[in-house]
Amino acid sequence: MSKEVEAELLAVNQQLLDAIAQGDWGTYSELCDPTLTAIEPEALGHLVQGMEFHSFYFKLSGGQVKPQNSMRDVHIRILGDVAVVAYYRLTQYVDGDGHPGTRGTEETRIWQRQNGRWQHVHFHRSPSQKT
Predict the structure, then answer these.
(1) Spatial distance between the Cα atoms of 84 and 77, rounded to a whole number of angstroms
(2) Which of 5, 43, 85, 87 could hold 74 in an S-S bridge, CB 3.0 to 4.6 Å?
(3) The whole model's pTM is what?
(4) CATH number for the 3-127 domain, one of 3.40.190.10, 2.60.40.730, 3.10.450.50, 3.30.420.10?
């Protein structure tokens, strides 16, 4: 695997996580294919299709301190014009009482090269089982 492609995927994935943390719908929707699919805890076991479900959460982001995301134990697999990026995501945040905290999720994100750029087409996110 090319180190350049790996670095590009890490950067675009971090850009996506930063857009989520900042509530930046413009960047998020630019990085995601309109037919994005997802399996995530908020969907209560259902497959989410499209962007509407996700836009609800972006509308909620108010003036609170924005979280910071980082990726750990990253594994990238390139399959032609498709890439699988799997990692453990640490989210540092400040709760409503001003107390800092950290939570973790296990994530797999699928990227597809479309028209010369990577587009996010699917993800699976699970709450951490680590204690």
Answers:
(1) 5
(2) 87
(3) 0.89
(4) 3.10.450.50
- Tokens for 60, please give them: 């909620």
- pLDDT of the residue at 1: 55
CA angle 82, 130, 98 (to 5 degrees): 100
The β-bridge relationship of strands 82-94 and 68-79 is antiparallel
Element (DSSP H or E) covering residue 54 = helix 52-60
pLDDT tens-place string over residues 43-90: 998 999 999 999 988 887 665 668 899 999 999 999 999 999 999 999
24 has pLDDT over 60: yes
